[in-house]
Amino acid sequence: MSKTIITIGREFGSGGRTIGKEVAARLGIECYDDKIIDEAAKISGFTTEFIQGIDEKARTSLLYNIVMSTAYGAPFRSNANGAMSLDAQVFFAQQEAILKLARKSCVIVGRCADYVLKDEQNLLRCFVYAPLKDRLNRAVGEYGIDKYNAQKIVQQEDKSRRNRYNTYTDRIWGARENYDLMINSSIFGILGTCELIVKAAEEKCGT
Amino acid sequence: MSKTIITIGREFGSGGRTIGKEVAARLGIECYDDKIIDEAAKISGFTTEFIQGIDEKARTSLLYNIVMSTAYGAPFRSNANGAMSLDAQVFFAQQEAILKLARKSCVIVGRCADYVLKDEQNLLRCFVYAPLKDRLNRAVGEYGIDKYNAQKIVQQEDKSRRNRYNTYTDRIWGARENYDLMINSSIFGILGTCELIVKAAEEKCGT
User: Fold this and answer.
1) ipTM for the complex shown
2) Which regions of chain B are under pLDDT 70?
3) pTM for this structure?
4) What is the spatial distance between Cα A200 and Cα A181, in angstroms, rounded to a whole number?
């Protein structure tokens, strides 16, 4: 198989992570998600727990995002004391980790990987989405999220993904021009979506 | 083959019409585009030329759209004299034509068909897009559009499609929630895009 990198952006609850693992298994390649945090920790000197904590804060705290934005302005800019935001430092460490892991064929779920790897030749950029009601069902039934808070949590997760993507790239999360293929996973199911991604990888990368 | 209806929304110059014809040929079913106008003419009593003229005006004249909108308000509303806009009458005639033609398996390109056929069970809703530069190349090289006006014309066509879709449906043209599958035709080429649509039809409709 020629080198194949597949990135999967996804709406929360659309099954993107499961799809990524299944696609990787079918192609006999690695799927990276949490391993990016481990690798970023090695690169940056931060602990895995610290990076996870930054991820968590960015995800759950609007106040945190506002403070970061106010203190540092654009994410890549240092503040008055020359310091780059911790969020930006973690983003750059994850970016280095992605570039390192993508030296070999792999699937990478989330983490702006389609943008980070934009110069990669054999790159298939996918985005997986689904209607809100189906994502709520998955969030409650599979991820164990309390059903009374599910809608708030699902929308907060999407907002966090959108904010981070839009902040660290010059692109808009989920906008079609950033992707090669966008799939409604409710229509095709997890396995059908995998079939389509594998087929697309064959078409684009000769997998 | 079980009944299969495939709708293809598309950015101008992305090759959507060619893709529609090729997909239909592979599945051994009809592809409807201009035939919808003929059928709408029969249904409405307007001539084919008149309907084409309305289509053309809507496409090329911003002033026409403003006048229609000012005179009639929402497209489905009659004006003070109880008359429905000609544009709306043509839309409804085309809608009836689509519903009639879609009694059998077929591919329908454009004309808000994904919305018109929203209650159809075996419906695969596709959207084909491509970067502007590639669409300009196709507009000049294949459609024979003057290269100095190509960008203006391509963007005007997209705007017209967007306006009509957004006006006559309660949806946003090109927004992912309206489609099952969205494909960047520059990445996969005409034939690769057809392969993916046929595969998706197999997955969804058991084609």
Assistant:
1) 0.88
2) 1, 56-84, 207
3) 0.88
4) 8
